[in-house]
């Protein structure tokens, strides 16, 4: 097969969810996250290594969005109604770049939930039609994996932590973002963030009822996912740690 076929907008096959290539992509991202976690102390204590990892993540994210825009133009498919970075993951990708550059705690408060949560759902149920090894397939998983790793970097390496206020801040921020995107959809005649109708490919929204009710269910679903992300990975470990400290102080 000619290399150009991996870039061509025309395709002979469609992406199949939970196909071997999908599972392999998910497995690679999971393994990278595990490796990242296992090396967190080494990265944290080595200033040059920490800066290099942060720069690498910035480059990966910028390459993902730039590469996508170049592909749109090269294939003559760029349209304001579908090619702007106004999907949630496009927005969180750009915000992740800014967060990594500025090490903003405010952006982290939003991106730990909206970035990781949104990218995770997208990775499980990709809005994708191009199969492996097409450029768009590779770009999709690199970009969404990069969004996840950006917030994990800030958590594991920089030591940032979300709070209950972060969760509420994220829900407020998502609604503000959605309102702005809704205005953009109205002007452009687009469907960014699927605020006008569901995607044509299979997604979790298929279980949330018809328009516009699925938007309300989606908001509740997001809140539950974010709540679990906080309870499981922060609140519960902190409670166990506090309990162990109390027990250790009890005199025998």
Automatic annotation (TrEMBL):
InterPro entries: CHP02206_TP0381. The chain crosses the membrane at residues 20-41, 53-72, 84-102, 109-129, 135-155, 167-188, 213-236. It comes from the Bacteria. Keywords: Membrane, Transmembrane, Transmembrane helix. NCBIfam families: intg_mem_TP0381 (TIGR02206). This is TIGR02206 family membrane protein.
């Amino acid at each position: 097969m000619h290399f150009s076929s991996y870039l061509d907008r025309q395709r002979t096959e469609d992406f199949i969810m939970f196909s071997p290539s999908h599972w392999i992509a998910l497995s690679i991202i999971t393994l990278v996250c595990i490796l990242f976690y296992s090396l967190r102390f080494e990265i944290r204590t080595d200033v040059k290594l920490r800066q290099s990892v942060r720069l690498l993540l910035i480059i990966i994210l910028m390459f993902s969005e730039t590469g996508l825009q170049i592909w749109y133009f090269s294939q003559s498919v760029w349209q304001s109604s579908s090619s702007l970075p106004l999907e949630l993951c496009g927005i969180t990708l750009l915000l992740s770049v800014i967060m990594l550059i500025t090490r903003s705690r405010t952006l982290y408060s939003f991106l730990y939930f909206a970035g990781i949560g949104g990218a995770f759902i997208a990775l499980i149920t990709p809005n994708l039609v191009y199969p492996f090894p097409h450029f768009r397939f590779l770009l999709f998983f690199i970009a969404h994996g990069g969004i996840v790793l950006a917030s994990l970097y800030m958590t594991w390496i920089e030591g940032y932590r979300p709070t209950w206020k972060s969760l509420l801040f994220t829900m407020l921020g998502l609604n503000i973002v959605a309102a702005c995107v809704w205005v953009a959809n109205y002007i452009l005649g687009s469907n960014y963030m699927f605020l006008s109708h569901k995607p044509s490919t299979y997604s979790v929204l298929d279980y949330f009822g018809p328009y516009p009710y699925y938007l309300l269910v989606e908001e509740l679903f997001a809140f539950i996912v974010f709540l679990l992300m906080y309870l499981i990975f922060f609140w519960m470990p902190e409670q166990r740690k506090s309990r162990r400290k109390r027990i250790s102080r009890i005199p025998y």
